[in-house]
Amino acid sequence: MTPWRPRLGILLSGRGSNFEAIAANVLAGKLACDIGFVFSNKPDAAGLSRARQLGLPCGALPSAGVERALFDSQVTQLLKDNGVDLVCLAGYMRLLSGGFVTQFPQRILNIHPSLLPAFPGLDAQYQALMHGVKVTGCTVHLVDENLDSGPILLQSAVPVLDGDTLETLSSRILKEEHKLYSEAIAWLAKGNFRIQGRRVLKT
């Protein structure tokens, strides 16, 4: 299958360190895609400021008090107006509506700081420590309308050390996230996969 050069729409709510890692790979020519738009539901998000510094097209819409389906339709229009065809969630702290997901079928990615299906939702690193697991990690998955439940693309394991604190464990997981997300985008762009049930299989 001919490689696809996607235009990325990156959605973030905070500092956007995964966005920065993706942008660095794009700007260095290490990732065969373009950043079409960077969006935040928080106008003062640090990641949005960084996007402006990099000269990337970006914008924000405050989500507070706006009905979810209406807000998502506005975001969808912004992304489509900017030619986005692959959406990457990078610390975007909102559950997407079914209407949003259907506009980008199998074209929305998220990264989560655990080996899903273990520890979905918030505070995954804390959950791992409290459960006493010996291995955790991060997962890039396709997004559906449910929380952290879409088909898994790639995972990377991170050992939990006896002396770990929430900060040390989170830091090591984040380093893996920065590598894994770009790997997943590159794999998706090549198109050499198929989805069978919940499994993503190479072709």
Please explain how this structure is put together:
This protein has 203 residues and is of the alpha/beta class. The protein has one domain (7-202): Formyl transferase, N-terminal domain (Rossmann fold, 3-Layer(aba) Sandwich). The chain is 35% helix and 24% strand. The protein contains six helices and nine strands; from the N terminus they run βαβαβαβαβαββαββ. The chain has helices spanning 17-27, 46-53, 68-81, 98-103, 124-131, 166-190, and strands at residues 7-12, 34-40, 58-60, 86-89, 108-112, 135-142, 152-159, 193-196, 199-202. Strands 3-2-1-4-5-6-7 form a seven-stranded mixed beta sheet, sandwiched between helices. A two-stranded antiparallel ribbon has the order 8-9. A hairpin with a 2-residue loop joins strand 8 and strand 9 (199-202). 37% of the residues are buried. The mean pLDDT is 94.
- CATH class label: Alpha Beta
Distance between the termini: 10 Å
CATH architecture, please? Answer: 3-Layer(aba) Sandwich
- Beta percentage is 15-25%
Helix content: 25-40%
SSE pattern, N- to C-terminal: EHEHEHEHEHEEHEE
Task: Give the strand tally.
Answer: 9
Q: Return the structural class.
A: alpha/beta
Instruction: Give the domain tally.
Output: 1
Low-confidence stretches: none
Tell me the CATH superfamily: Formyl transferase, N-terminal domain
Order of strands across the biggest sheet? 3-2-1-4-5-6-7
